[in-house]
Amino acid sequence: MSEITVRRALPGELAELGELTVAAYQADGLLGHDAGESYAGELRDAAHRAEHAELLAAVDASGSLLGTVTVAAHGSHYAEISREGELEFRMLAVAERARGRGVGEALTRAVLDRARELGASRVVLCSLAAMKTAHRLYERLGFRRLPQRDWTPVPGVTLLAYALEL
What we know:
about 170 residues, alpha+beta, 8-stranded mixed sheet, about 35% helix
């Protein structure tokens, strides 16, 4: 396994990170619902995420992009369920070729580190019910279901909420 570094995404990487995110969601069959096409456009727009949130990139020792995650402060454009004192993350994606190497865990741990730096008391996220592999990772890291914050952004799509107390 090569070394994984998580850092802020660089401007020259944004288009590739957008495509990586869409490809990861497509590989998992997560864009098949009616709203999937418009969501693919949102996933592809890494430049917008970098402008309105913190966009992190996971890279290997050669600088090859392995994955990405969007970190959203409460009240920011990309925050969906966070409340005061919480940090939220969304759109975690790992390139198919990099799966099974700890990239998702490295990205999630980087979010937790960032939350601590910012003085957040809790980290929250939403996830589709079909994202079982992600759920196992989150639960292994200490996240617990937060069912009172589950929500439906569009008909037929239910997002499950998770939280980790810091």
